[in-house]
Amino acid sequence: MSVLDVLVWPAKVLETKAVPVTHFDDALKAFVTNMFDTMLDSGGIGLAANQVGDLRRVVVIEIPWAESKYADQEEKREPWHNKRWVLINPEITKKAGKIRWQEGCLSFPEVYDFVDRAAEVWVKAFDEHGKLLEFHANDLFAVCIQHEIDHLDGIVFFQRMSRLKADIIKKKMLRRGLVNE
Ligand SMILES: [Zn+2]
Asked: With CB atoms 3.0 to 4.6 Å apart as the test, which of 56, 63, 75, 119 could cross-link to 97 if both were Cys?
């Protein structure tokens, strides 16, 4: 196992579009394992390869039921909770409804903002063995998939916020970067 470095904005790779995976080999499986290790180590629920400096269209997601705000209402538990999702070359084939969620991102430490997304998405992707997955996602799982596919397209969190808010946070992050150097 290895935990990779999670890159923080303004790393250029976060604003670069990733390319489709064409070889499903052992190296890819090892990379996926490292992505899960990295995500769990950072306390995230989703991670896109761009965030560890790799431009392949690879996403991992795991949403713990225990951390849900409904964790005391078992009937709200979804089949996608506590499941390791590997989404390679993911595509959204259909969207429905609207949902507004306060999102965070490992590449934007301490930044949270409400983002509008589709409430439900239908997804086509491959797992690390090259097997085709087709499924429907709702609620936080749908939000997370849309957030991670944005990463693969080189779209960062700022592009989903109001411009005013993005400008304030950008300045703050750049200032912090300069102080740390
Ligand atoms: Zn993110």
From this structure: 119
